Amino acid sequence: MQLRSLPVLLLCVAATGACRSYNERTDHALAAFESGRFDEARLAYAEDPEGKGFLPGVEGGMAALTAGRWQVALDYFTAAAEAVRATEEETLVSPEKAGETLLSWTVNETFSDYYGEGYERVMLHVCLGLAYLALGKVEDVQVEVRRANSLLENEEALYDADYGAGGMGHYLSAVTYELVGDYDDAYIDYKRLEAKGLGGALTGSALLRLASWLGRDDELGIWRSRYGEPRELPADAASVVLLAGVGLGPYKIEGRIDVPTSDGLISWAVPSSVSRPQPVSRLVLEAPSASVRSEVLEDVNRVARLNLEDRLAWLAAKSAVRAFLKYRLTDTLGDKHGEGARLLGAIFTAVTERADLRTWRTLPGSWQAARLFLEPGVHELTLTAIGGERIHLGSFELEGGETMFILARTLGRRVYAHPIGGRPVPAVPTAVQTQPQGEPQ
């Protein structure tokens, strides 16, 4: 990019100073989301000037998903996936393509389209999988999970890194394989979870259960040594699977260095990831006969930080190139138009050198899951956030071998949960006995 005249420079300074960032424009939408006004949040994100790109799609989709509006969530997430489809295809063909995109030069990172961080595009397909699961489209869940895993593998290949990520995708895959009776493939996904150290007791109990069912006696001994004896399950047990997003994910802040010189200003600006405080640590799913605590499948805060740290070398290189070019521009303007132009060039450098702080802000801080096995029959279910509120989900009749799902989200200390499956059983009114008037109490 070349600025050939002082009027052009003046115009650029005015334009960049007048534009609010994406985060500033959507702060009210995030506030609505945090307070549970999900439809308001979704519509506010959709009205942003960035249009129908990645961020309005994923933010609106998450608002709809948290509200339990599955088809609406699917529509938004699909729009976001279409916005980044070409970028994903290039990345899947060659991880180095992502590096080429990162090194493309702009006067300011926020002037370019935002296609999501690598981990965010992985999370997009996980969320598509959740929406399909809620709509009962098991085959589509598998398609999205495979896409998420492929993108994650390419992201790790690009940076020669191991994020210990992909847990939510592997668990979704395993559970849906179990739904269709494909226990061998489900077992493979649980082994992948175990190899990554994700899922804790949830993964261990699944490996014990499936190794026993599949007759993998040699591996069953390994799992017994790590997780103890398999738990005895009721004959023809039903199960309730909790899939939960806990808290809010990270946000970005700018780190910058400004170095005044006799000929102008040299500025570098790069983003860093900051985790939010999480008042809720885990969830507890309870029935009168049993209870289970959620396990972490995906630490979004950790993955986001590691993924951004891997990108920082490229981002810093881009910022350094911009700093040098703007410095030379300022020096040239000063020589041609005097000290006033040199000052204007320094202002231009300071105003335009900004780190890109855009990020998917409605993502949870972690994805967690739990599974409760119960005898067939009617069960009253409650969900408690450790550090937050306790909600009554209702009573449900479960048949033998049936799997019921609960999709949940915590925001602050609040819990939002949507049961999927089972047959709700209306509560029986309790008769209230009163004393006839005039009789002694």
Outline:
Helix content is 50%, strand content 21%. It has 441 residues and is α+β, with helices and mostly antiparallel strands. The radius of gyration is 26 Å and the shape is globular.
Q: SS-based structural class? A: alpha+beta
Helix content: 40-55%
Task: Give the second-level CATH assignment, the architecture.
Answer: Alpha Horseshoe
N- and C-termini, Cα separation? 89 Å
Q: Which blocks of ≥5 consecutive residues have pLDDT under 50?
A: 1-6, 8-18, 95-111, 319-327, 341-350, 431-441
Q: Provide the β-strand percentage band.
A: 15-25%
Shape: globular
Mean pLDDT: 81
Secondary structure: number of strands: 12
CATH class: Mainly Alpha
Major sheet description: 5 strands, mixed
- Neighbour order of strands in the largest sheet: 6-7-1-10-11
Whole-number count of domains: 1
How many helices?
A: 16
CATH homologous superfamily (4th level) name: Tetratricopeptide repeat domain
Give the topology string: H per helix, E per strand: HHHHHHHHHHHHHHEEEEEEHHEEEEEE
Description:
Mean pLDDT is 81; it is low at 1-6, 8-18, 95-111, 319-327, 341-350 and 431-441. β2 (251-261) and β3 form a beta hairpin. This protein has a five-stranded mixed β-sheet. Strands 5-4-8-9-12 form a five-stranded antiparallel β-sheet, with no helix packed on it. The chain has helices at 6-18, 22-25, 27-34, 38-46, 54-67, 70-83, 85-93, 96-102, 118-134, 138-159, 167-179, 183-195, 200-213, 217-227, 300-337, 339-352, and strands at residues 238-246, 251-261, 264-274, 283-287, 290-293, 295-299, 366-374, 377-385, 390-398, 403-411, 414-420, 423-425. α6 runs antiparallel to α9 and α9 (118-134) packs parallel to α11 (167-179). The chain is of the alpha+beta class. The protein has a single domain, classed as Serine Threonine Protein Phosphatase 5, Tetratricopeptide repeat, CATH 1.25.40.10.
